[in-house]
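Q: Sequence in, structure out?
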Amino acid sequence: MLTPDTLNKELIQLIRSRLPKGTTVANYLMDILPLGKEAVYRRYRGEVPFTLAEAITISRKIGISLDQLTGVKSAGEALLDMKYMQGKPHLEIYSDTLDQYGTAFQVLSRKKPNELWDASNRIVLGIQFNYPALSRFHLFKWLYQQDALVDEHTVFSYEDVELTQELRVRQQYLVEVSREFDRSVYIWDNRAFFSLVNDIRYFRDVQMISEENIGHLKNEMLQILNEVEALAKTGAFPNGNELQMYVCHINFETSCAYVQSGEEKMSLIKVYNLNSILSHDQRVFDNLKGWIQSLRKFSTLITQSAEVQRYKFFKEQRELISRL
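A: Exactly. Output:
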């Protein structure tokens, strides 16, 4: 039976499991809640229960849903959580979303053993964000889509978008923490590069990006191919963590991923260019894991193997980019 005392203890345990080393629960709570030191310690000791509003604030900050805290489940149903923020400037939303994913990956990569599986029909952000022009293009497209949701007549160009140093730092942090898992497996839709090329071609056709900047984007895509090809040959990131890459011979409509970290499991279904629908539900995890694993039947492992198929794949991608 759920009681305020058991809920308090469970919430404190979840906070403790997600905090960086050296950070105390009490100090963290004082930072995020409008409470004084004594009020925080009363909650920490279990003398006073957290209010619903306080529990919601904490759950959002540490990246959990309240169903995970309470254990609420309905037969045949699973609760999903989508990180969506309203009432903030677009750049702040973009920055906060990067920060949330960076924090979640950093926490999950600390628990052992761990692994990340990512099936993507686009170039994964953990690679794309290594390159400033492509990082700027990702932000430009996201801002363009967000403004279109508000006012379809809003017009601006790639050249109008500034990738601030703060955003670059957050993008780069996401790259770093996404490579901290003991083992990562990427399954690429064979049209992953086609999607990015097609996006750039569209914005060129509507005169929202200059030929000079298209040249920068082409150069960075070729650099990505060089990087990915080198990773495929070594089977590891520069930090030594294992990487396997597959090329899928069928196209799939949805990009998704899952992380298995110690006893914790998280599923991500990617939507809206940057956001993901998250779930810690075991049934969702099992179904998503099964679907991603099934893609290997239609795929070729190009990491430290299949040299002919690997050479052909990268040759086709370079030819595609050269025609842009």
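The CA atoms of residues 116 and 184 lie 5 Å apart.
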